[in-house]
Amino acid sequence: MENLAFYVSAFSLSALLIYTCKNQAARVGLIDRPCERKRHCGEVPLIGGLAIFAAYAIVLFLSPLVASHYLPLLAGGAVLVAMGVFDDIKVLTSGPRFLAQISAAVLMCAWGGVVLRDLGALSFDGSLFTLGSLAIAFTIFATVGVINAVNMSDGIDGLCGSLTLVTLTGLAVTTYAAGASESFIMIIILMSAVAAFLVFNIRFPKRARALVFLGDAGSTFLGFTLAWFVVSLSQGEHRVIAPVTALWFLAMPLFDTVGIMIRRILKGRSPFAADREHFHHAFQLAGFSVFRTHVTITVLAAVFMAIGLAGQFAGAPEIVMFYLFLGAFCVYFWGMMRAWKLMRFLRRTMHLEKETVQAGAEVVIPMLFRDGDIEDLRSFYLKQRDLRQNGLQQTGRHLRMEPHFESDAAAESAESEEIMPLKLVVNAAHTSPTELPSKSVSPK
To answer: What is the pTM of this model?
Structure first.
């Protein structure tokens, strides 16, 4: 019952901080505004991460759990939250952000003693694959990698928090089964704080926009905390999970981050260059709403987490689980490479079936646009909406483009969606089949 009070306190305090601070965020500049890469609607407070960290730290200090070996966790988290808040206000370059992440990882290793000394039984003879003198350097590299993987997953409402909950769920199940009560309690406290944030962040079907965002402060803190737990629980004689199980728990963020960096390198671009080619962007270009994209990716992450749990409890050889993980990544990468090629092809070419056009009929063709035209698509929709409200109709030579929605509810929430769907209407009564366009059409 005492532990239940900690969980309820973490949830309540996180929710209270978000509710009381979200209207004050603009005064200090903690506001996320739409831009070329951020297509949300309106200004959104960036105080979710601050609330989660504050609630987590306060509840831990009020509980008997905060021993000296947990202070480095909070200290490293504080470094990342402070840098994240500054970044959310001023928009820093990648240099200071990486410096803060490396500093937090060094605190984890040097002060907390949380070091990745081996990668588990990945040898064919079942022996441990130890890192030796490379242990600290590899731990710092892995920690910074997990931090950025979680940070990159914060691309649509609810996704980063939900993927964090999936990973924490796997860790909670394994720590409970192993009797590691201290780690279990700390994990559940963090889950409670994150769950309260998701109440304000998830875009439910009847809520068109998130009320608050995590911000870089929140996503980097959550990434650091996950790295701390997966490393600390996968090392030593009394390890709770195998290192490869941790990979399955973090599968979706790792797949997306490693996959997109490889694709950028193959295209001759910097692996750290920002773009809109993440896994969730592919779903949205395929026509999924933000909510459906969030739910689909979260379910996939839960499936991978369940595979990791099954392998852990069944005692499957770690080397087998490792190669299965690599195989799953190869399937993911193969699918993403072909998905983006298909989307590029569809955006470049729009074919009209000329023989189906009859006099007096209208042919409705979905509009798909080349890379970089998404903002034009949004602007075109907004212009069309204004013209329609004034009783006017924008027409072109034999063609007109109109917003295309499946329902009135979809139309009402269109401004908060990532992509505005359009249709091209061909007025066949005034257009001969030979005049129909066979190449891509742009709203410009």
So the answer is: 0.77
Which single residue is written with the structure tokens 């949004």? 378
DSSP SS3 for 40:
coil
Quick one: tokens of 203? 């875009």
List of residues 6+ apart from 245 with CB closer than 8 A: 170, 174, 234, 308, 309, 311, 312, 321
How far is Cα 319 from Cα 300, in angstroms, rounded to an integer? Answer: 23
- The two three-digit tokens of residue 335, written as one number: 């699918």
Coil vs helix vs strand at 85: helix
Q: How many CB atoms lie within 10 A of CB 286?
A: 13
Q: What is the pLDDT of residues 153-197, one digit of tens each?
A: 988 888 999 999 999 999 999 999 999 999 999 999 999 999 999
For the CA atoms of 336, 337, 338, 339, the dihedral, rounded to the nearest 10 degrees, stands at: 40
DSSP-derived letter for residue 118 is B
DSSP one-letter code for 370: -
Q: Give the span between the Cα atoms of 64 and 296, in whole angstroms.
A: 39
Q: Exposure pattern of 109-141 as b/e (b: 16+ CB <10 Å)?
A: beebebbbbbbbbbeeeeeeeebeeebbebbbe
Q: How far is CA 122 from CA 239, 244, 245, 316, in A?
A: 16, 9, 12, 12
* Cα end-to-end distance, the chain, whole Å: 63
